């Protein structure tokens, strides 16, 4: 118990990659700071220029993807035509106003592709933040039940028709926000209850939470009239169908606020990955930061779910891929994930619109078919790599 | 304790007065507190070792000093002022904490990990907390001190336990603290790395005047490297004093509830503990 070697954990030492002690260590003076290691002069760090470069680059890529996706659909529009129609602006007059391609482009595709970009970007940004907050690279608003919480909130509002609009604006996002917040608080409680965070506890908690919320939603749906119910099922599958411009603009306001708040907290997010105690010891006002993050994550998830239903796995695979390319620093990870998530969902939705055209596949089906296997792969590979 | 008059004049970093802390809800916390009525002054420039059986309140005491935990009763003063007047960042600029175990699920580089120690020095009213050249210089110095600068680009998830622990101590030094709190810094390390960490800690103390408070299960390492020891038993101070006073048969047997042998280290002459057959 009191011997010198008693505390060296064998299993722990065995789990880490064996790096042999360099020969110079043994030659160093016995009572020195670790002698002999080559002193170095520069520390690589994230500069604002790199940040702007990466976000600008990905932003440009997103813009190109946006224009490319506008051409595809039941009616294919050639790229030069898309460019010419875009150049007319949304308020063209005269003959152009009634041209079929002009209407398809400006009234159907632009709002829809824009919605896909915003929804994908928000889900990816929320995913990256939740992963840091819960210290779990497999966290995703859909997988851990935040989206179902939001869906329950929205379902309650729709089915009971309580105060659906104030001053003409839909308050559906408010109910979805409350549902998402409730789910987030429960999930966080589950995640911290074991002291050290366990990947599997969180995922199991998410599975059960999803089951409970789904059951409640189904229960509510059976109470509703059949017409409302079928609309509800379509929405739950995740769909980006038929947004109009005002809806997209309102959503844009909610989402921009949420993402801006998340981005502003990214240097604290980096420290939260160390755990609450370590973060506090490094000067993070943990309780305040957590409240801000909870609110922003619930706002984003709630707004997204209210408008587009349950779209899963975007928040998981996008931050994972971005981390492989740009590293773990959340200051870059969050904005890059936002852009990449937008690109990913624009592409996924284009596939959903065109694959079985004129029939549409719900975009949630596409993301689950792509993201689900990736999630399982990561789960298997994760085994033993993270001390749970 | 060695004679270092210049450090004795410095203000004590910590004064704890009748501190009681319990986990959980109010009633259970009051019934079975993790720390009971602890009064303690930590002198500037000393190495204080906190010892005791599992669950005796060692880590709790350390976390109270860092204000990670806030005691229900009693006072904690940091450099002569009540703990509560400081912001979290203000505390972190003067006191650094090395947790028992650092688990990291995300692929941060060692560079990024050490630069996290600059967080309390950042002005975050605008921007995302970009590091200045000053931040980088301090982090570089800390990494050179701990011999991890050549590992800067490696991922924290891919280095050995000893290297990770050195990187975490480098992060603590990057805070430019006056006090270093360490929770079992040598647990999970092999003999070579235990010795290395202990020597680094003592040099930081002797050469930079850093006040060190460390929690350890390793009585012999503590006896060698600490100026003063504090033995906790069920949340109360059982013995406090020089290693010779604390590492003694009667106090250890009373606290740990098992018989021990205490002799002298052949080189340093400090008390040494072994278990009887």
Description of the molecule:
The complex is a heterodimer of chains A (388) and B (277). By secondary structure, chain A is mostly helical. Chain A has one domain (47-382): ABC transporter involved in vitamin B12 uptake, BtuC, CATH 1.10.3470.10. In chain A, 69% of the residues lie in helices and 1% in strands. Chain A is built from 17 helices and 2 strands. The longest helix of chain A is centred in the N-terminal third of the chain and has 34 residues, at 100-133. Chain B has one domain (5-274): 3-Layer(aba) Sandwich (Rossmann fold). Chain B has helices at 5-8, 26-31, 58-65, 88-94, 110-115, 133-145, 161-174, 191-208, 219-225, 243-246, 249-256, and strands at residues 14-21, 35-42, 47-51, 73-78, 81-82, 95-98, 179-183, 211-215, 228-233, 236-241, 261-264, 271-274. In chain B, helix 6 (133-145) crosses helix 7.
Key features of this structure:
heterodimer, A: 388 residues, mainly alpha, ABC transporter involved in vitamin B12 uptake, BtuC, two-stranded antiparallel sheet, 17 helices, 2 strands, 1% strand, disordered C terminus, B: 277 residues, alpha/beta, Rossmann fold, six-stranded mixed beta sheet, four-stranded antiparallel beta sheet, globular
């Amino acid at each position: 118990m009191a011997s010198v070697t008693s505390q060296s954990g064998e299993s722990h030492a065995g789990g880490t990659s064996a790096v042999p002690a360099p020969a110079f260590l043994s030659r160093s003076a016995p009572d020195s700071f670790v002698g002999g290691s080559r002193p170095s002069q520069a520390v690589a760090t994230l500069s604002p220029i790199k940040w702007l470069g990466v976000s600008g680059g990905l932003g440009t890529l997103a813009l190109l993807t946006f224009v490319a996706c506008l051409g595809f659909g039941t009616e294919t529009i050639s790229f030069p035509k898309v460019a010419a129609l875009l150049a007319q602006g949304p308020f063209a007059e005269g003959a152009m106003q009634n041209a079929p391609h002009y209407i398809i482009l400006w009234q159907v595709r632009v709002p829809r592709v824009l919605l896909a970009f915003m929804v994908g970007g928000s889900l990816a940004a929320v995913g990256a933040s939740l992963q840091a907050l819960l210290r779990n690279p497999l966290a995703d608003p859909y997988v851990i039940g935040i989206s179902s919480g939001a869906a329950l909130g929205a379902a309650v509002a729709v089915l009971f028709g309580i105060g659906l609009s104030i001053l003409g604006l839909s308050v559906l996002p408010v109910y979805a926000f409350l549902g998402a917040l409730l789910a987030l608080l429960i999930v966080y409680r589950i995640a911290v209850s074991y002291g050290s965070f366990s990947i599997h506890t969180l995922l199991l908690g998410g599975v059960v939470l999803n089951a409970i919320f789904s059951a409640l939603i189904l229960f509510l749906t059976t109470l509703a009239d059949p017409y409302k119910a079928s609309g509800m099922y379509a929405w739950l599958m995740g769909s980006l169908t038929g947004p109009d411009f005002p809806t997209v603009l309102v959503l844009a306001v909610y989402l921009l606020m949420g993402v801006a708040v998340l981005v502003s907290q990214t240097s604290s997010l980096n420290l939260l990955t160390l755990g609450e105690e370590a973060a506090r010891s490094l000067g993070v006002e943990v309780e305040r930061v957590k409240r801000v993050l909870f609110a922003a994550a619930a706002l984003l998830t709630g707004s997204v779910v209210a408008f587009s239903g349950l779209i899963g796995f975007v928040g998981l695979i996008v931050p994972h891929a971005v981390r492989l390319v740009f590293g773990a620093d959340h200051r870059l990870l969050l904005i890059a994930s936002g852009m990449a998530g937008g690109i990913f969902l624009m592409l996924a939705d284009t596939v959903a619109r065109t694959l079985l055209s004129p029939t549409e596949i719900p975009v949630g089906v596409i993301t689950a078919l792509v993201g689900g296997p990736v999630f399982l792969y990561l789960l298997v590979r994760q085994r033993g790599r993270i001390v749970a | 304790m060695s004679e270092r008059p210049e450090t004795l004049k410095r203000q004590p970093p910590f004064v704890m007065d009748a501190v009681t802390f319990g986990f959980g809800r109010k009633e259970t916390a009051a019934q079975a507190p993790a720390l009971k009525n602890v009064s303690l002054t930590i002198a500037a420039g000393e190495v204080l070792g906190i010892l005791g059986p599992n669950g005796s309140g060692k880590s709790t005491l350390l976390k109270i000093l860092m204000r990670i935990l806030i005691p229900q009763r009693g006072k904690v003063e940091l450099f002569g002022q009540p703990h509560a007047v400081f912001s979290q960042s203000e505390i972190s600029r003067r006191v650094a904490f090395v947790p028992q175990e650092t688990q990291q699920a995300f692929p941060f580089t060692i560079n990024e990990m050490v630069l996290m120690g600059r967080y309390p020095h950042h002005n975050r009213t605008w921007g995302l907390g970009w590091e200045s050249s000053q931040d980088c210089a301090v982090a570089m110095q800390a990494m050179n001190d701990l011999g991890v600068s050549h590992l800067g680009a490696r991922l924290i998830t891919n280095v050995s336990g000893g290297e990770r622990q050195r990187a975490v101590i480098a992060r603590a030094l990057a805070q430019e603290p006056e006090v270093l709190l360490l929770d079992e810094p040598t647990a999970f390390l092999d003999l070579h790395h235990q010795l290395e960490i202990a020597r680094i800690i003592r040099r930081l103390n002797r050469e930079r005047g850093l006040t060190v408070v460390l929690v350890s299960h390793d009585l012999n390492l503590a006896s060698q490297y600490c100026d003063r020891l504090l033995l906790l038993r069920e949340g109360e101070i059982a013995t406090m004093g020089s290693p010779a006073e604390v590492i003694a048969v009667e106090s250890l047997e009373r606290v740990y509830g098992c018989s021990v042998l205490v002799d002298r280290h052949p080189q340093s002459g400090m008390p040494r503990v072994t278990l009887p057959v």
